């Protein structure tokens, strides 16, 4: 397959560490240019990706022959940049939150359908090592019928977040947490949410309780101020429970400047990170699946070439946004909110 010519919009934390290395390391993709107005970030691109140009606009990308863009800009610009790119005939992979609300997500989806362009939310956490392990155990029936799904992104870094670029913990961390819950357990019928608002006006210490149509319940936590983070996952079924104590390490590795292209051990977790399966008073260790953030962009490139589906359906981003909209109403009103798709 001829590599798809990509542009990257934004070279902040996400663009620099999560998107550029994965695009540059994928044989199916050619990272052509980065859109940034910052002289400092232009210098970073020149040092870290010397063959990649820096430009000032989406139109400049079109003029350079780019076919698709990865969007990693502040959250409140995601919809406007996505819609502009689609209007210019570019396929789009957009970082989370895909949109600030469900109405904006639906608008982008309709625009992509009208133009016949590939559009996909960048839900890389579907390929976390511990989430892939949970999915395997559920699919194989090891846990029986899942009754409760507990999932956490909890950190103690009060000076680092929540950042304005991510629009608060509900839209930032919980975009991933809700997406994973929907993938695992299906549609949600009601949401109860709680949050603490910081002096900045951004939400933090978020808790969501989701009731799924199939009867299971998801409990989700997101926080930048948790002194004692809980296990990444605890999944309880009729036959067994699974605990994944630690988070996937792919983010950690990318922050060192490493790339999937540079190692055969990408996504492999150490034995010390193994999960625990509890059944009838007996505990056994479970080796985690290989984390695979590196599959997203090759799959997206094939979709651009018409050789397969997008890695994450944009309709899933709409479903996540519907749940997050309901969570916002619940946290504000102090009541549970019914979810209407």
Protein model, in words:
The chain is an alpha/beta fold. 33% of the residues lie in helices and 25% in strands. The strands form 2 sheets. The chain has a 9-stranded mixed sheet. The chain has a 6-stranded parallel sheet with strand order 3-2-1-4-5-6, with helices on both faces. Helix 4 (78-87) packs parallel to helix 5 (102-115), helix 5 runs antiparallel to helix 10 and helix 7 packs across helix 10 (314-333). It starts with a strand and ends with a strand.
Short description:
It is built from ten helices and 15 strands. The protein has helices at residues 13-24, 39-48, 58-63, 78-87, 102-115, 129-139, 173-185, 250-255, 296-304, 314-333, and strands at residues 4-9, 29-35, 53-55, 68-71, 91-95, 119-122, 146-154, 188-197, 203-212, 217-223, 233-237, 241-244, 275-279, 282-286, 337-338. Strands 14-13-12-11-7-10-9-8-15 form a nine-stranded mixed β-sheet. Strands 3-2-1-4-5-6 form a six-stranded parallel β-sheet, sandwiched between helices.
Classified in CATH, the superfamily of the largest domain is Dihydrodipicolinate Reductase, domain 2
Order of helices and strands: EHEHEHEHEHEHEHEEEEEHEEHHE
Put simply, the count of helices is: 10
What's the domain count? 2
Assign the CATH class of the largest domain: Alpha Beta
Overall form: globular
**Strand share of the residues?**
25-35%
Helix share bin? 25-40%
Overall structural class, as computed from helix and strand content, comes to alpha/beta
Strand order, main sheet: write it out.
14-13-12-11-7-10-9-8-15
Mean pLDDT: 95
Find the CATH topology of the largest domain: Dihydrodipicolinate Reductase, domain 2
Q: What ranges have pLDDT less than 50 throughout 5 or more consecutive residues?
A: none
**Count of extended strands:** 15
| Radius of gyration, taken over Cα atoms and rounded to an integer in Å | 20 Å
